[in-house]
Write a structure and sequence with these properties.
It holds the Pfam family Methyltransf_11. The chain has about 260 residues and is an alpha/beta fold. The protein has helices spanning about 15-20, 20-25, 30-40, 70-75, 115-120, 145, 150-155, 160-170, 200-205, 215-230, 235-240; strands at about 45-50, 60-65, 100-105, 130-135, 170-175, 180, 245, 250-255. It contains eleven helices and eight strands. The strands form two sheets. It has a six-stranded mixed beta sheet, sandwiched between helices. A two-stranded antiparallel ribbon has the order 6-7. Strand 3 (about 100-105), helix 5 (about 115-120) and strand 4 form a beta-alpha-beta unit. Helix 5 (about 115-120) runs parallel beside helix 8.
């Protein structure tokens, strides 16, 4: 994790490979976005760190985005500002330069979590938002029955809630974010009631966990899930999820205030 990948990715995942069609599968979800907008309050200047393709950036404020991956910066839609090539651990901004800052689905990629959060706190006068997953809750998702290797590698990569809170300092609220059934942001739990979607290799590729396990894990997963869907076994065990409006899984929004 000490060197950046060829496309500039600074974390453990190579987004030059897995990020090619990322935006096709990872569209910001309005329900999740509502939590972020509420936490941003009346902040008029916002920093987005590890901004990727721009998911969840508010369009009614002045946003500055920082993203190390060439591939992800290239996928930002035209209506968003171009992202600065940079990393969380070394933000090129003055103290208190932004009213608020945000980091969504990115802290598990950072080389130095404490340094990155310290930098975000330094350049932010108001709330610092971190959207991430609680590693202790990942195994509540049915995927753990089919590909425990993928869940295990994710749990090893995501920092603990206490670790993030300690890095943010000050007062920190940890808010569970229920995932809607028709979630448009295709992280794994977004498909809790639409298992067929995870048979799409592209959908799995847009979740970095699959790049850390042997390809045979994905092949075994797809074969077993296909068989269980065809036989009705998945629906007998998890069918109620198909109509469950929300899934309270691992998704968390941490809001740190000075």
């Amino acid at each position: 994790m000490s060197a950046r990948h060829q496309d500039g990715s600074a974390g453990d995942a190579n987004y030059g490979v897995i990020g090619t069609n990322y935006r096709r599968y990872r569209q910001p979800d309005p329900h999740i976005a509502g939590f972020i907008l509420k936490a941003l309050g009346n902040a008029s200047t916002v920093l987005n760190v590890g901004a990727g393709a721009g998911s969840y950036e508010p369009t009614d404020r002045e946003v500055t985005a920082v993203e190390p991956s060439d591939s992800m910066r290239a996928q930002r839609p035209a209506h968003l500002n171009q992202a600065i090539d940079g990393t969380a651990e070394n933000l090129p901004f003055a103290d208190g330069a932004f009213h608020a800052s945000m980091a969504t689905f990115t802290v598990h990629q950072w080389k130095d979590l404490k340094a990155g959060l310290t930098e975000m706190r330094r350049v932010t006068s108001g709330p610092v938002l971190v959207l991430t997953c609680d590693p202790t809750k990942l195994d509540t998702f049915w995927l753990n029955d089919y590909a425990p290797e993928a869940i295990s590698v994710e749990a090893s990569r995501y920092p603990s809630m206490d670790g993030i809170a300690a890095g943010l300092g000050g007062s920190v609220d940890i808010l569970p974010v229920p995932i809607p059934l028709a979630c448009t942001d295709g992280f794994s739990e977004a498909y809790y009631g639409r298992p067929e979607s995870l048979l799409d290799p592209g959908a799995r590729l847009a979740n970095s966990a699959w790049s850390f396990v042997d390809p045979s894990v994905g092949e075994r997963f797809a074969k077993r899930l296909s068989d269980d869907l065809q036989s009705g076994r998945w629906d007998r065990q998890h069918g109620q999820l198909r109509s469950q409006p929300f899934f309270e899984g691992s998704l968390r929004l941490l809001v740190g205030r000075p």
